[in-house]
Amino acid sequence: MISSNVNGTGSINWSEIYNRQKKKLQENFKDPVQINPNAIFANNETSLSEIDIYGFDYDYTLACYKPELHYLIFKLGQEALIQKYGYPSELINIEYCPDFAVRGCHYDVRKGLLLKLDSFHNIQLGTVYRGTKALSDEAVKTLYGGIHVSLEDMNTFYGTGPMYQLVDLFAPPEMTLLCNLTDFFMENGIPYDPEYVFHDVRSAVQGVHTSGLLHSQILADLETYLDKDSGTSDLLESLVSQGKQLFLITNSGFPFVDAGMKFLIGNHWRDLFEVIITKARKPKFFNESKRPFRIYDPQTNSESYDRVLKLSKGKIYQQGNYYMLQDMTGWYGFNVLYFGDHVYSDLADPSLKHGWRTGAIIPELEREIIRSNCLEYQQAVKWLNILQNLIENAQMDTTQDTTEIRQSWLDERKEIRNYTKSLFNAQFGSIFRTYHNPTYFSRRLARFADLYMSNVRNLLNYPIEHTFYPRRMELPHEPHV
Ligand SMILES: [Mg+2]
């Protein structure tokens, strides 16, 4: 492109190239590419013909929850903060805003900021919030001495730093509550330590789960919280009818799972599974060999004291570990495909340590695909790429000073990037990408999940022998063909 000589005077007329390319795009790009929101996407080639055993997590995998669940988690978290942690009673008046946060953001407990990181640990500017108020790019760069966050500052497998990722099913209401609380303290001039507030909110919200309160409220109104039309029943019946073996590994207790599965599938649901493991303590289930299985008796709500030497169909097991499961069943490696919604505790160890094939359930995917299927989004992305090429090429032009024109293009680029971000979520954008990189969440999803999809029922759209092929990723040095 840099060799173009548009005005015939020896120098390149960049404005004319810009206008010509923009007109061409507007005239020619009218049919957006349509991606099926109910498709399955492959990070790694996966052939279902090799899969004999299908494993499932329960919550948010077989059990699809309706949006009402986040309202409930928020409300119970609010009540717990007031009643158990002594927070001001006025907090109860705050209503849950479902559109504020997205899963996978990080919270810096020392600085009290919610933000989004990319796969290089860079902060995405424009996604840093104290409470529900955005910080300017300059303020962020001053606070972090740039935009990079050191590995040592992450609270992950590698370290115990101040940067926590909120990625489980409680994340959106938990993040929103945290930010509402921060607003409350700031607006009322109440001094607070963000680290205490974070741990109090975390304990309150997680406590709603561990105390059994959340489960009891869900059980009291399954119609409101569980999506009965999610297709789970059809999928499981279909797999069994085609000779596949099924197993369940969930951290939830049997009475909760049993009520949900009876509601979703019917009283015969246990007949579909070869092995049912509850209270599994994932991710420890996959990486510790200490806890043996125990048999759970639903009649007496008690566990056996006998040593479990084999796993039998029809029985309910609790705890246990991966190594005993493999020894007792002979299931391992490429014959097993396990589905879960928690990219770390469900999928990381099965994939990295044990060689299972893995499928991630990412409910947000459906909405994001629908958004990215629109003409406005695709036109904006296409123009962004053209504009970026123009910016890159113009800076190589030594025949004239292109500083001014490039600055106006850089401003336009910033505007378009903010527009494409806001189509997914006004504050944080897509859970899968920052402006130009995959997110921290997305990079891990690509590493731990062979397949990913919005709902496990999407499997019904494919033949049982189907092979999923990943899109060939063009490396930056390879020719664009
Ligand atoms: Mg789950």
UniProtKB/TrEMBL annotation:
Q: Lineage in the entry?
A: Eukaryota, Metazoa, Spiralia, Lophotrochozoa, Mollusca
**NCBIfam families to which the protein is assigned, alphabetical:** HAD-IG-Ncltidse
Q: Which GO terms describe its molecular function?
A: 5'-nucleotidase activity; metal ion binding
Q: Which cofactor does it need?
A: Mg(2+)
Name listed for the protein in its UniProt record: 5'-nucleotidase domain-containing protein 3
Family membership: Belongs to the 5'(3')-deoxyribonucleotidase family.
Instruction: Output the Gene3D superfamilies linked to this UniProt entry.
Output: HAD superfamily/HAD-like
Residues recorded as binding Mg(2+), renumbered to this chain, are D57, D341
Tell me the active site.
D57 (nucleophile), D59 (proton donor)
Which keywords does this Swiss-Prot/TrEMBL entry list? Hydrolase, Magnesium, Metal-binding
SUPFAM superfamilies linked: HAD-like
Indicate which residues the UniProt annotation says bind GMP: D59
The record's comment on cofactor binding reads: Binds 1 Mg(2+) ion per subunit.
Which InterPro entries did the record assign?
HAD-like_sf, HAD-SF_hydro_IG_5-nucl, HAD_sf, Pur_nucleotidase
Q: Does the keyword Metal-binding apply?
A: yes
The record's section on PANTHER family has: 5'-NUCLEOTIDASE DOMAIN-CONTAINING, FI20020P1
Pfam families attached to this UniProt entry: 5_nucleotid
